[in-house]
């Protein structure tokens, strides 16, 4: 237990160091806030990094309009309770074209998330964006640096990455370039859950098991979260005990059957897991290099 506590303290110190370095070296940073567990930890660390002052940058939620309803409720409540500036950006072109996760496949992710993010960064002129990606989530994230330079147009070129020795970070960038900073790069899913438990960090209730209306479709358990969900012939939603290991657009996010209804039970279940949490995300199933291609195009 002592070793684990020290391990979390080291990760915490590293993340706080990254926050302070990037704020000191850039002109207009922002923190991407997706409302998931990693965002919850990221926000908690940001508040610690600058306490007792308020965090010196706003939160940016790139809204696809297809998040779980519980995520929107949680997002607005946390922004109010913490007194943080929350920017919400929606891609109006995607809205006008009616782009949705049921009919448009990968175009939904590209228009709402990738293009939406680039629009928001350009609109506000941010030169640095903190995000909660971790290296253990995906092999393309595993090879990206803690501080990652994006070219004008927000593209990522894995061949142009800078070396990072020990804790020496380089946030300098040329005119038109921006950086993405990942203070949770060296954390694992287990670290995230143990830190949430240790620090009593608020999270969206969807991470805890409860009876929810679901259907099984294409190898995934999908929650019918609102009346926009088009049922296929023969599909009837049924109440099952499920929870979510990861959260995104609800039609693209698979639940897992579980009875883990407390933090201790969720931590125990995570420690016993043998597959990645990203197995529940449909957008990662497009192809073996789907995430890397999306990142090169500007996805966070």
UniProtKB/TrEMBL annotation:
Catalytic activity, as annotated: sulfate + ATP + H(+) = adenosine 5'-phosphosulfate + diphosphate
Gene3D superfamilies (alphabetical): HUPs
Chain coiled-coil ranges: none
Gene Ontology terms, MF aspect: sulfate adenylyltransferase (ATP) activity
Keyword Signal: no
EC number(s) stated in the UniProt entry for this protein: 2.7.7.4
Domain Phosphoadenosine phosphosulphate reductase, first and last residues per copy: 29-254
Alphabetical list of InterPro entries matching this protein: PAPS_reduct_dom, Rossmann-like_a/b/a_fold, SO4_adenylTrfase_ssu, Sulfate_adenylyltrnsfr_sub2
Keywords (A to Z) from UniProt: ATP-binding, Nucleotide-binding, Nucleotidyltransferase, Transferase
Pathway the protein contributes to: Sulfur metabolism; hydrogen sulfide biosynthesis; sulfite from sulfate: step 1/3
NCBIfam families in the record: CysD, PRK05253.1, PRK12563.1
Subunit-structure text: Heterodimer composed of CysD, the smaller subunit, and CysN.
Free-text function comment from the UniProt entry: With CysN forms the ATP sulfurylase (ATPS) that catalyzes the adenylation of sulfate producing adenosine 5'-phosphosulfate (APS) and diphosphate, the first enzymatic step in sulfur assimilation pathway. APS synthesis involves the formation of a high-energy phosphoric-sulfuric acid anhydride bond driven by GTP hydrolysis by CysN coupled to ATP hydrolysis by CysD.
Family affiliation: Belongs to the PAPS reductase family. CysD subfamily.
The protein's name in its UniProt record: Sulfate adenylyltransferase subunit 2
Designated gene of the protein: cysD
């Amino acid at each position: 237990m002592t070793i684990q506590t020290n391990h979390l303290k080291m990760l915490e110190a590293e993340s706080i160091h990254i926050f302070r370095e990037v704020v000191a070296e850039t002109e207009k940073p922002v923190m991407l806030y997706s409302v998931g567990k990693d965002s919850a930890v990221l926000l908690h660390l940001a508040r610690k990094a600058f306490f007792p002052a308020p965090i010196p940058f706003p939160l940016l939620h790139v809204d696809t309009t297809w998040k779980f309803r519980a995520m929107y409720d949680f997002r607005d409540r946390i922004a109010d309770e913490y007194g943080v500036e929350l920017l919400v950006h929606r891609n109006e072109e995607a809205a006008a074209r009616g782009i949705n996760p049921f009919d448009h496949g990968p175009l939904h992710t590209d228009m709402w998330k990738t293009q939406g993010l680039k629009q928001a960064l350009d609109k506000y002129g941010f030169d640095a964006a903190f995000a909660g990606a971790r290296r253990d989530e995906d092999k393309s994230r595993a090879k990206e640096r803690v501080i990652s330079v994006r070219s004008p147009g927000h593209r990522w070129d894995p061949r142009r990455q800078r070396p990072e020795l020990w804790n020496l970070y380089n946030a300098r960038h040329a005119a038109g370039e921006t950086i993405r900073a990942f203070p949770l790069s060296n954390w694992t899913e287990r670290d995230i859950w143990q830190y949430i438990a240790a620090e009593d960090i608020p999270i969206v209730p969807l991470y805890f098991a409860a009876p929810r209306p679901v259907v099984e479709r294409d190898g995934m358990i999908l929650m019918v979260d609102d009346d926009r969900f088009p049922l296929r012939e023969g599909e009837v939603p049924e109440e099952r005990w499920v929870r979510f290991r990861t959260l995104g657009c609800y039609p693209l996010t698979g639940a897992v059957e579980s009875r883990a209804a407390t933090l201790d039970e969720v931590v125990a279940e995570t420690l016993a897991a043998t597959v990645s949490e990203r197995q529940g995300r449909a957008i990662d199933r497009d192809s073996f290099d789907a995430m890397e291609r999306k990142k090169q195009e500007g996805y966070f």
